[in-house]
Amino acid sequence: MKYKNFPQEFRNKISQGLDQELKNHSRAIAAFDADGTLWDIDMGESFFKWQINNCDLSDLPADPWKHYRDWKASGDPRPAYLWLAQINSGISLAQVREWAEQAVQSLEPLPIFEDQKKLIEWLLQNKVEVFVVTASVKWAVEPGAKRLGLDFEHVLGVATETKNHLVTKSQDGLITYKEGKAEALLQKTKQKPFLACGNTTGDLALLQSASQIAMAVGAAPQGHELFATEEKLRQEAIKQGWMIHRF
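Structure (tokenized):
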């Protein structure tokens, strides 16, 4: 699918914002949401679907997809997001990461927004430290980030602790959803991002944390479950004078 390119003034504004940031700090940080922001797919939920079909996860309920979706829609989705990591309890982290890579391979070619890939390449070339901050399970998103030139340490997402290299059910760090995104990034970097980019109201706090540039993007068509929340973020971006783009 052909996605709409960023206008040229976007790169100019980002370059100017980076110059300004480096006047105030010795380094610069950029942060991107993952699903719907870097690629036109929900990689976290896609991994869960792949696991349902390909992995022998003994603790799953009879209809795991419905169980997750109902839980997610019940009010606070954070326990449901954490559960997608907890279902891997007792499995080696290496195995989970191997499964995540296999799941992404099954989706290729990934619908990555080409201009986001080019922007991240430009940021990395200009010594910007780039993070992906997602409400999805961290391990599910890592293979996508790798395809954008980012290592696993630069993916902040929902995770559980590991013990003796095995995944446990104990929450590891913040749930990276809404305010948790900005908080987890600041906890990791001790510095606000000069650029923050997201597509839904779940990314609002992350965009508000940007010191120079906030960018609201979107690609969901009308009728899609994300359309309303993308539109709500777009309206907030208009009020705030943020950069706006629909792929």
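The mean pLDDT is 97. Residues 8-246 form a domain with the Rossmann fold fold (CATH 3.40.50.1000).
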